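Lab notebook, bench 4. Still working through the backlog of constructs that have no structural model yet. Next entry is a single chain of 193 residues. Request: give me the structure tokens for it.
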Amino acid sequence: MTVFDKNSLRLLIYLVFLFFVYSSALFSQQKNITTSVLVINSIMVFEKSKLGSDVLMSFQKAAIALKREADLNVKKFEDEELELTQKREVLTKKEFNQLADDFDKRAQKTRNLYDLKDSQLRDKLETWKKKFMELSGRVIQPIMANYNAFIVLDSSQIDLFFDNRIDTTELVILELDNLYRNDPKYLELIVGK
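Model written out:
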């Protein structure tokens, strides 16, 4: 046997070995399993499903609108500050200090207002996520029944070791996308448009 034939034989044996390992892994993944526990990654469901993506898009649109509004106010304050500094030379110290104090108070009040609006928008997103997960229950319940499962653990919330065959994340995403495709009102139900 030549070196080329030995190398070819080794490669063939290696490929056959890989085929058996891969096909046995595929076969074990395709077995019907019955378990009382299923696993889901709720963050993945939210980010990868069409409905979750649309909820995130609604949040991003609201955040962009809020930023534009804040930027307009920043520009107004910058212009007013420039005017105030130009008046400094013609005003008495007392008059200037009163105007400057008033300006600082209004600027701080506006800054606080936008911090509050930003916080409220983030709270709204959390509320939307909760509504989304409640809605997801409509597709999770039948999947649980299909597996005869009693518990669904969220792998995004805890460190969890599990058999990948009981991870139903992709199945939930698929079913949720089907539900949303058939009735787009669910976005309004979550974000309240």
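Notes after review: Residues 93-147 form the longest helix (55 residues). Confidence is low (pLDDT under 50) at residues 25-31. Flag for follow-up if needed.
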